[in-house]
Amino acid sequence: MSTRNKIHLREDQLPEAWYNILPHLPNQPAPALNPQTLQPVGPADLEPIFPLEVIRQEYSPDVWVPIPEPVREVYKLWRPTPLFRARGLEKALDTPAAIYYKYEGGSPSGSHKPNTAVPQAYYNQQQGVKRITTETGAGQWGCALAFASQHFGLTCEIYMVKVSYEQKPYRRVLMNTWGADVYPSPSNRTESGRRILAADPDCAGSLGIAISEAVELAAQSPDTKYSLGSVLNHVLMHQTVIGQECIKQLDEENIIPDIVIAPFGGGSNFAGISFPFLHMNLTKGTNIRCIAAEPTSCPKLTRGVFRYDFGDTAGFTPLLPMYTLGHDFVPARIHAGGLRYHGAGAIVSQLLKDKLIEAQAVDQISAFESGVLFARTEGIIPAPEANHGIAVAISEAKKAKEEGRKKTILFNLCGHGHFDMSSYEAYFSGKLESHELSQAEIDEAIGKLHTPEVPAQ
Amino acid sequence: MSTRNKIHLREDQLPEAWYNILPHLPNQPAPALNPQTLQPVGPADLEPIFPLEVIRQEYSPDVWVPIPEPVREVYKLWRPTPLFRARGLEKALDTPAAIYYKYEGGSPSGSHKPNTAVPQAYYNQQQGVKRITTETGAGQWGCALAFASQHFGLTCEIYMVKVSYEQKPYRRVLMNTWGADVYPSPSNRTESGRRILAADPDCAGSLGIAISEAVELAAQSPDTKYSLGSVLNHVLMHQTVIGQECIKQLDEENIIPDIVIAPFGGGSNFAGISFPFLHMNLTKGTNIRCIAAEPTSCPKLTRGVFRYDFGDTAGFTPLLPMYTLGHDFVPARIHAGGLRYHGAGAIVSQLLKDKLIEAQAVDQISAFESGVLFARTEGIIPAPEANHGIAVAISEAKKAKEEGRKKTILFNLCGHGHFDMSSYEAYFSGKLESHELSQAEIDEAIGKLHTPEVPAQ
Questions:
Q1: The pLDDT of residue B316
Q2: Where are the alpha helices (DSSP H) in B59-168?
């Protein structure tokens, strides 16, 4: 075993194509449906809101989709990203497991999100689009799209969940620094925002509402498109540079991991690291466990229902087959980080339904406890989202110790927590709360859903 | 010319020794003096507050001082750091100059400061020290020492300038996350703090006061030592890994820069990048201009006096020969970032006196204007300190355009601004102020000095 703590790749080892898992799935996800007609949504239906190349990729049957050279050039600002052996954490846990983590926090915006923001901005620019709209919660995605839009000379308009806009001003200032316009959502700038404000002027907002606002604006103007930071196939695919690099890096140590872990919001972080390993499971006979780490306050994978649902609150998006808590589920305000989205992407949902991946829910206090142990042993301050993945990695390393087995555990350290120190402060002062939903709350959230069932395959 | 934007080194190219410029100086700095006896301070005088190896390095006659392997191992968490060609910035400026920047913001604490915090913590641990005390202003240094102390299992006690402690809670939380204890200075925990609070209970604090508190505690207890983040010879030497890496990186492009620029607080940032290039000037006949960028609100290099002065406010430290504004100079509160220290290190002061380096003062608003242009063209959000260096780089690139000359400009992007977004917010909202001291203010500050003149050489 090498004693190297950091495994770096050369720039020329940056992946040349994204991996599209869709053709390899044993069962294809049910098609997205038009909510009015309940007929499958085709590429043409998406043209008002997405650029053509993005739509093509959403439906692509190709296993490998080439990364355009201008996108690779921007990636090279921070990619390939380092893979670390967590020797400090291993020692603190006294575990026989080898723990590795991929660090995506070195990107300009501090998370994995630019991996898809950059190509999306590029394809929009290539098509002559002038303005991109999007939503953001804690702000990781908004920052990434602001950075990417600035790079390709596009105007960027961001609808930020109001409670985050007010409580987390610094990510907003970061977006402003990259030239983006940021509005608290619900806003008065859209029909959907005005409708919600009329019913509840103090509405704290949600990702679903902010998506409605951003999509509404894109649909109204031919030179404006919408960009999504998770859930959809093309977004998940763009993130696969993460896992591809991990495979090359672990290969240098002659290692195939036993377990791959990532935090789970809409699925892009998890897909990014796990899909290239699932590729090995699906085509090369490996048996790597891939575990999605979600918060107990928003547990769509572990306690949600598999059903057609909208991606947004107002119902502008197509109906997607997903594990969901219902499109108007609003997570408790206690939750510090992202991962607050009500549903999971169609591919990831299908993988879970087919038992090709696993999911675990982590409560917020355990997540921060794990994050602080990580910071003290490895030096990097993780984002609250990342803490959920770290908690699962620690739990699996402890199991390895109980079992006396030398497992290799890999997790995605998807971003740094530099803009989340108020959450750490709350944790240290005992003010951070955990929230586990009661079965009645889950039943109530899901009971409101009147969307179609996903037909059995 | 290569089209690569990022020049990376392999881990095995990490420098194996620090560069000590002292033996190469044409004129040695005058010795530090004991303030009571006015006799030169010898190594033994420093033993109560520094570990032996640090003292040895402070006086070392060796040109190259080997970096211990355990220190190199920690360096490898983020070193070698990347060197970027600023093509986006060059394009925006339409300059014939090639602009390169070394990015030190990828360290765990986000600046160049761990380059010296790590060896200092290591040498203390080796000597059996249990606790390190230090001061911090904006928090960059405190974070670095908290991280390094945590790594080597030492207790870390940090005196943070009160106005920063109150206005910048997030760097404090970062220090807490790495297990350090942070106190607002002046505090009631030391004699010097109590004396100042008795005279002025609302005292906002200064670096000089915080140094007095930290040094006082170290002097009282044999298992406690003090650690300084700039000014002294050993600190500057530890930072030379920066410039050494730059030389290797530029060498890959067959480039010797015309101009090397860094922000200037006490000198460690500037020394880190410039001393290895000054080594070339002093021993190989190159003529590289090295420019220190200081704030107009604390202009010791451009408007201060060359004289013996204390490193702290209370007068606990030896008298050092330095460019200074006087040890009780308190910069205007308007200033957002670091660089607020009253004096410059002895070596850097001697270099300036001998006209081997240059200095320029930058006002705060110009600095932020430059920083925002940089963020929008290069993607990285710079620390306010770093913005001063960027401003000088931009000014030199504009001169190159006027002169129609293809110069190569290198600057040290010493840290990211993730914990300084409130300053960016102030800049965007027009609330950020610049402050240029009047001649009367300068005269008043310097007029208070009753310390000895430095004898002519």
A1: 86
A2: 69-75, 87-93, 114-126, 140-151, 162-167
